[in-house]
# Entry
Amino acid sequence: MRAIAGAIFIIGFMLSGVLSDYKEAERIPTELRVALEAIYDDAASFSAEQHGDEVASLRVVLLEILKAIRRGLDHEGGHSDLRPALAAIDDLSPRFHSLERLGMPANFVVRLRGLRDNLRRGALRIYYIQAIEFVPSIHILVQTLVGAVLFLLLFLKTEGSPESAMIFGFVAYMFVYALHLVSVLEEPFRKGHGSMDDVSLFLLREFEEKLLKRAGIPDERKRQAEDER
# Structure
């Protein structure tokens, strides 16, 4: 029983660390959406009566950022390849410089650069959470303990009652599911798996649809549906 209690304590420690990253991951899509909306709205308000080409160019970069995030977190990007997204965020700097040359006030340019930094920070945080395993040594320890506990349960002498079998089954289920839960929470962005535990990117998807609508471009999913018809 002491071995079981020790294993539960170590698993709880690991879950607490992984859960903190998961909670942070749930906030990141909102922060990215706010930064993207603010960048587009500030540029659009400045160019309301002129410089329409600059707004169109900025819209293309924003769409590329959203597309790169979606692809990087999908199967084709291994759920962790955000380097194209970071490169697309870097492409915002020349657009801000163009707006500054066209007469955008300095305080607006400073604000845009701060929002770009927020985008970069969010993308880097997602990149780090998805790519790095939480304390690999603890993973090895926990997997070893779980295997040892399950092995010990097989050799424990019981009265053969259904109650004893249910207790051992519950303990085994708890340990195995805890390992599964750790693996799921360690990668909160796993687009394409359809898991209930994945952090949703619907806010970014809705903003992408909004940009496509303003540009007069039909949504890719709608185009595919129309083609199928």
Q: What stands out?
A: The two ends are 62 Å apart (CA to CA). The first helix runs from residue 2 to 46.
